[in-house]
Description:
Layout: E1 60-69, E2 72-78, E3 85-106, E4 111-125, H1 132-140, E5 142-154, E6 159-171, E7 184-197, E8 200-209, E9 216-226, E10 231-237, E11 240-248, E12 251-270, E13 273-293, E14 296-304, E15 306-313, E16 324-326, E17 334-343
Antiparallel strand pairs: 1-3, 1-17, 2-3, 3-4, 4-5, 5-6, 6-7, 7-8, 8-9, 9-10, 10-11, 11-12, 12-13, 13-14, 13-15, 14-17, 15-16
Amino acid sequence: MKSYIFLFLIPFFSLTSMNAHGQTDSTVPANDEFDYSLFTDAAGVKRYATQKVINQSPSRIVSIGFEYHDRFQMNQVPQDASNTIADYTIRNMSGFRAQVNLPVISNDKFIWQVGANYWGSQFTFKQVPGSKFESRLQQNGLHSLGVQSTIFKPLDEKHWLVVQVAADVNSSFSKIAEISRQTLTLSGTAIYGWKYSDRNMFGVGLARTYRAGALLHVPVIFWNKTFNDHYGMELLLPARGYVRRNFSTTSMLQLGYELEGNQFQLANAAANGSLFLQRGELKPRIMWDQKIAGFIWLNLQAGLRMNWRFDVMNKAGSREIADRFYENQLTNPFFFAISLNLVSP
Length: 345
């Protein structure tokens, strides 16, 4: 399971007509009965699908946030230079998150965006770590730095295509010199879709992703639908899915889940070289979005961090039991997050 990132699509169109007093328009019949066929689009004008649906959650251009996970257990961890295992209590895990997504080209026929993101996690252990694996987590935490490029191409008024590629550097590095090719993961998604109306978009595609920790290639279903002025849904399965309650144009509540993760290099964490942490988290959560002023919005989240995968491997990309140093033994804490976001108009 997993997925990646995807683009949402929302149409906005308005038409205004004006009549001047004291003048006679030769296109208007004398009996004031309008022939609306006279006001149709000019011949040869092609219209294109837009990238959102009505009342969709706002697209973030810049986002800066903080995430906090409550106490949880890390059990059955192998210790260095012995055949023993140990259980650890993590008092908390916290970190900053940031994202920038800027348009390079944006018009009716083509939208190209480029962006960057950061995801940090710092672990605070109750006990003194007894292996290089826990020591590395406590001293340096986990860091993910990435860049991505997304293209939305409407083919006509009903059909569209989204392509996204991303590269991430993921490690517990304490200095830039520790970054290597083995810290790099590459992801990508392609979706072909249909825009049935201003309230309904659907698409299918394929993704290469590390959201579940290990590399997977999975089919993708995209579906953004607004049922009425108050309710809708935003799905990019299997990566995430939400139902939405719009209280107004400036506030909304969402309930759903997201799958997050990647593969992290634990530089020099083992005596014979690096270890690789395959980390995947399923996060059922509730989110509140509120406009503060202008294009500045506040986002609040609360939910449960459910451990999907937390396997430490001796080889990058491997899922073989023989290459496993530590297997998925985390308990599931509550978490909350807060962010300030500059959103698109």
